């Protein structure tokens, strides 16, 4: 074999390698890992955007908002299957709270084109479990 052919084969193997890598966690597994060591509280209708630090998309499943040390999980009542972890969430709210009646537009990060929207549901707060006193 010529050295050019060997180089092409090596390059093709590198490109194909991700296709044979271990499968990603399912959305349910990703969410479980994120919530490990936490307990759920009673669902709430709204969260304060002023105190929300970050949001994270669990592809096809949920949006997780961090408010202080709590995580608020929202599994949209409609459109969750459209959630992609590379989306930009475009939220229009009236006031300082994000509520279960709000919609969020999804924009593709690469192309900047709208991809759809989700209709939020209630937010489930998850709090870290404190270790038992000895």
Give me the side-by-side strand order of the main sheet: 1-10-5-4-3
Assembly annotation: single chain
- Tally of separate domains: 1
Tally the beta strands: 10
Strand content: 35-45%
- Uncertain regions: pLDDT < 50 for 5+ in a row? 5-20
Envelope shape? globular
Mean pLDDT: 85
Q: Main beta sheet, described?
A: 5 strands, antiparallel
Written as H for each helix and E for each strand, in order along the chain, the element string is HHEEEEEEEEEE
Please state the CA-atom Rg, rounded to the nearest Å: 20 Å
Structural class: alpha+beta
Q: Could you give the distance between the termini?
A: 69 Å
Number of helical segments with 4 or more residues:
2
Helix content: 10-25%
Signal peptide: 1-21
Keywords: Signal
Notes on the protein architecture:
Keywords: Signal. Residues 1-21 form the signal peptide. Helix content is 17%, strand content 37%. By secondary structure, it is of the alpha+beta class. The protein has one domain. The strands form three sheets. Strands 1-10-5-4-3 form a five-stranded antiparallel beta sheet, with helices on one face. Strands 6-8-9 form a three-stranded antiparallel beta sheet, with no helix packed on it. The model is unreliable at 5-20 (pLDDT under 50).
């Amino acid at each position: 074999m010529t050295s050019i052919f060997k180089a092409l084969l090596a390059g093709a193997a590198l490109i194909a390698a991700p296709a044979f890598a271990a499968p990603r966690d399912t959305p349910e597994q990703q969410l479980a890992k994120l919530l490990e060591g936490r307990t759920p509280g009673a669902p709430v209708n709204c969260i304060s955007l002023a105190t929300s630090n970050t949001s994270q998309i669990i592809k096809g499943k949920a949006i997780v908002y961090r408010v202080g040390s709590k995580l608020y999980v929202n599994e949209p009542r409609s459109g969750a299957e459209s959630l992609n972890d590379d989306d930009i969430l475009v939220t229009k709210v009236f006031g300082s709270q994000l509520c279960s009646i709000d919609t969020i537009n999804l924009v593709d990060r690469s192309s900047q084109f709208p991809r759809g929207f989700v209709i939020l549901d209630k937010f489930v707060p998850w709090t870290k479990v404190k270790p038992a006193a000895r």
